[in-house]
Every structure is written in C-alpha cells, then in structure tokens.
Amino acid sequence: xxxxxxxxxxxxxxxxxxxxxxxxxxxxxxxxxxxxxxxxxxxxxxxxxxxxxxxxxxxxxxxxxxxxxxxxxxxxxxxxxxxxxxxxxxxxxxxxxxxxxxxxxxxxxxxxxxxxxxxxxxxxxxxxxxxxxxxxxxxxxxxxxxxxxxxxxxxxxxxxxxxxxxxxxxxxxxxxxxxxxxxxxxxxxxxxx
Amino acid sequence: xxxxxxxxxxxxxxxxxxxxxxxxxxxxxxxxxxxxxxxxxxxxxxxxxxxxxxxxxxxxxxxxxxxxxxxxxxxxxxxxxxxxxxxxxxxxxxxxxxxxxxxxxxxxxxxxx
Lengths: 193, 113
Description:
Number of domains of chain A: 2
Number of strands of chain B: 10
Shape of chain A: rod-shaped
Distance between the termini of chain A: 47 Å
Largest sheet of chain B: 4 strands, antiparallel
Strand content of chain B: over 45%
Number of helices of chain B: 0
Strand order of the largest sheet of chain A: 4-3-2-1-5-6
Strand order of the largest sheet of chain B: 1-6-7-10
Largest interface: A-B, 68 and 55 residues
Radius of gyration of chain B: 23 Å
Shape of chain B: elongated
Structural class of chain B: mainly beta
Distance between the termini of chain B: 26 Å
Largest sheet of chain A: 6 strands, antiparallel
Strand content of chain A: over 45%
Order of helices and strands of chain A: HEEEEEEHEEEHEE
Oligomer: heterodimer
C-alpha cells in the first residue's frame, strides 16, 4: 500500500522540481544559478529559487551574466552584449602557459634493439620538456604553440656485446643521444571547463 | 586534448666503439634533419589558485625523419695490416615515444572568484 502511494508521489515530486528549476543562468565567474527566470529587462534578469521550501525572488545584473537559458524560449539565449566584448572576455580569461617535464618512453621500432634489423632505434628511456602557450578562443577550443626538447640515449651495450663476441673483449663505447627540439603548433580541445 | 604538428629538428644518435689493444674502431656519426612530427596528448589540470594549476599529461610523438650523410667508419689494424673504410648513408628512422609529463600551468587574465 505504501509502495503504491510512493509510485504516485515520486513522479509528482519530479514534475514539480522540473517545472520549477528549469532555467539556468551562467555568470561570468562560472557560477551557475538553477532557477526559474520570471522576467527580464534591458539591464536585469529577475528569477526565483526555491530554498528550504520557500520561494526567494532575486535579480541579477546582466553585466554579471555570461549567458542564460530560459525554458520559455526553448533555446539558448546569449547575453545581449557587444559580441566583441564577449570574445575579448573569453580571450582575456584563458591564456595558459604550461611548463612540463617528464619521461620519454620509446616504443615500436624506435625502442627495438635488434642488430639484424636496420630500422631498430636502440633508444632508451629519456627525458622531455616543453613550454607551451594556449590561447582559448571559445569555451572548448584553443590554439597552442609549443617549444619542445626531448632526449633519448642510445643503448650501445648490445652492439658492444656483439663486437666483443666477434673480436674479443675490451671494447669501449661512447654515444650521443637522439634529440628532438623545435616548435610545434596545433589546436587544443577542452573536455571540461 | 592537444593535437600538434610541426617540423622540429631531429638529431640522430651517434656511437663509437673502440678496442684499443687491437686498434679496432667503429664509428657511426650523427646527422640532423627537419621532419614533420605529430603529437597527440591528453592531460588533466588541478586548480591550485586562480592563476596556477598543477598539470599532468600523456602524449604520443610520431615522426619519421630521414637522416642524410651519416658517416660510418670502420678501422681494423692488426700486425702490419691496416684496413679502413668510410661511407655515408641515408636512412629513415621512425620515432615513436610516449611522454609522461607533469608541471605547472599559469593562467593569465583569470576571473577572481
């Protein structure tokens, strides 16, 4: 009996929640306000929120709003500001400079150490570092310029052992590493804010 | 997610093997080449402050530079005999590495929360 009653009550709760909190205001500082937009004029958005079973009416200046979604129009309403200002805002707030360093692990033919295979790279694990700048043009897209440096030492032991097997012991080896350095450029996709 | 392309400078590895007792030596010189390279990477950022993030990233570097004029020298000296040969070769080398990196990201123009 109780369960059957609950089956009726639950959808009603969902409907009431969905019917109320169906609009969204996204502020410039990324804060999101889930609310019911009750009205707007050229400078202000009026909305109401349910908190602790009470209805609170508030308003927010459009200067603080990036964009807002209203269910009444069934579409995304972008803040009605100068388009140039909006783009400048995105650019100004999203310039990233990265300093990264770590390990460079070779794989495939580059890591292969087979004397009978002339394509083998005999590369050992190395180091890599880069400095890059990313300019975010839109919310999920940016452009990146990067300078990279990578070094992988050569594994000379196998060749030394092979020569010693052929000519006798006493071989000494020295090597210079594989190096990669230069500029790269491309696009950056953001999967979250 | 980062998709990068460029034409960086690649320098091939060089090596020298010598057996001083018998004066045998094998030398492979180095060479440089510019070649197209591709990097695809994915990373995560953890916000430390409004202007600083800790970043970790994994990327894959793919390139196939072609090295020209790589010198190979082979010297054998035994008794009164002496044998030496030198030649230059050209070879392509497929370079594939997985790079695991960590570091810092500075954010300019961030909005104060």
